[in-house]
Amino acid sequence: MKLVQTLVVRDEADIVEDHIAYHLDAGVDFVIASDHESQDGTTEILERYARDGVLHRITVHGQMRDGPWRTEMARLAATTYGADWIINTDADEFWMPHRGSLKAVFAAVPEPYGVVFALSRHFVPRPDDGASFAERMTARVSPPAAINDPTSPYRPHLKAAHRADPHVAISFGAHVARSGRWRPLHHWHPADVLHFPFRSLEQWENKGVRRARGDKPLGQYVTAFRAREGGRTASRYQALVVDGDALDRGLADGSLAADYRLRDALRRLRGEPSDDGRAGGDVGLVAEGAGVRDAELVRLERRLDDLCARMRAIGPPARARAAPR
Amino acid sequence: MTMAGEAASELVAASLAFHLNAGVDYIVVADPGTNADVTEVLESFSTDVVRRLAVGAPDLVSATELARRATESGADWVIPSRADEFWWPRGESLTDVLAVVPPRYGVVQALVREFVAEGDDDARFAEGMTIRTSLLDADVPPGDFHRLLRPVYRTQPDLVLDDSDWTLGGRRVPLRAWYPIEVFRFSGARPDQLAGHGTLVEDTRLRDALLRIREEQSSGGRLTLPVPTVVDDASYAIECAAVGEVDLVRLDEQIRALELRIAELESRFWPTVRRSLKRLARRPG
Question: Is B253 on the interface with A (CB under 8 A)?
Answer without folding.
Answer: no
